[in-house]
Amino acid sequence: MNDDSRAITEDYSYDVADFSEEQATAGANPVSPPPIPDYLQDTYWWAYVHPKSVWVFEREWLVNLILWGNMKKLTQSVLDELDLEPGSNVLQVACVYGDFSNRLASHLGQTQSRLNVVDVAPIQIGNIKKKLAKHDNVAVHLQDSTCMSFPDDSFEETVVFFLLHEQPADARRKTVAEAIRVTRPGGRVIFVDYHGPKRSNPMRYVMKPILTLLEPFAMDLWREELPAFMPAEVKQEQVTSNFYFGGLYQKVVLKL
Ligand SMILES: C[S@@+](CC[C@H](N)C(=O)[O-])C[C@H]1O[C@@H](n2cnc3c(N)ncnc32)[C@H](O)[C@@H]1O
């Protein structure tokens, strides 16, 4: 069955009663299921929370269109960055529509490594469980990125793909701090997100009104470099940045 033939009634629900059991098996500290953050409910309900959102957006071609044809390149840029010992644990902070997590899980499978995915929206957890069901190296966790329940230093590498631009500054800073906390010293946190494009890039004038209207917090990442949202103790030499598509996208790698 291809994407377009899916029935709109397809069930992406996630039983929050499964939550406690999964927490216990994941080795996370016991916590209650997190509430949906206000910014997600108020600004992004149509994309991630509405019962039909998954049916509308869970299509690789659509995600690729939203990223102006750059989905494959940006996904590959993350895979190229991962340099893991066999049996490593990797965290993906927040679900991503399309093939990103499937490609990441397959890539990690080559080194008998595991992928852990966190998301705060039960419908997204339900969807990713289905989407990644064919992989036996994946665990998903209903958690808020701003206060994750994993112990310190739980993961060799952590990936944050297009989440930070969706969060208000306070939540963004907390997510970055949490991603650092749960990643072990010597590991890396890889961020991919929007960035302010060069003045000569026509996409600047196309994307500004779109983002301002639909993704208002994204403009923070145009105005400030992403490391500005990292804790003060992070040193400049720990950070490497690469830019794509005339500067509209960035990959920032923080070596811990
Ligand atoms: C990674 S971002 C956007 C990715 C990309 N634009 C796409 O096409 O999917 C979207 C995800 O972030 C999740 N999310 C937003 N705020 C979160 C938070 N505080 N904790 C965990 N997940 C969060 C949403 O539920 C959603 O599944």
What is this structure, in a nutshell?
Helix content is 36%, strand content 19%.
Please outline the helices and strands.
Layout: H1 18-26, H2 38-43, H3 45-49, H4 53-57, H5 60-66, H6 71-81, E1 89-93, H7 100-109, E2 114-119, H8 122-131, E3 138-142, E4 155-161, H9 169-181, E5 183-194, H10 203-214, H11 220-223, E6 239-244, E7 249-255
Parallel strand pairs: 1-2, 1-4, 2-3, 4-5
Antiparallel strand pairs: 5-7, 6-7
Helix pairs in contact: 6-7
Bound molecules: S-adenosylmethionine.
SSE class: alpha/beta
User: Can you count the helices?
Assistant: 11
Q: What helical percentage do the residues reach? A: 25-40%
Contiguous runs where pLDDT drops below 50 for at least 5 residues = 1-10
| H/E topology pattern | HHHHHHEHEHEEHEHHEE
> How would a textbook summarize the main sheet?
7 strands, mixed
Rounded mean pLDDT is 90
Q: In what order do the strands lie side by side in the largest sheet?
A: 3-2-1-4-5-7-6
Global shape:
globular
Strand content: 15-25%
CA gyration radius, whole angstroms? 17 Å
Ions, cofactors and other bound molecules: S-adenosylmethionine
Straight-line distance between termini: 43 Å
Record field, number of beta strands: 7
Give me some keywords for this one:
single chain, 256 residues, alpha/beta, 7-stranded mixed β-sheet, 36% helix, globular, binds S-adenosylmethionine
Question: Can you characterise this structure?
Answer:
The protein is an alpha/beta fold and 256 residues long. It has helices at 18-26, 38-43, 45-49, 53-57, 60-66, 71-81, 100-109, 122-131, 169-181, 203-214, 220-223; strands spanning 89-93, 114-119, 138-142, 155-161, 183-194, 239-244, 249-255. It has a 7-stranded mixed β-sheet. Helix 6 (71-81) runs parallel beside helix 7 (100-109). Residues 37, 40, 48, 63, 94-97, 118-121, 124, 144-146, 161-163, 166, 171 line the site of S-adenosylmethionine.
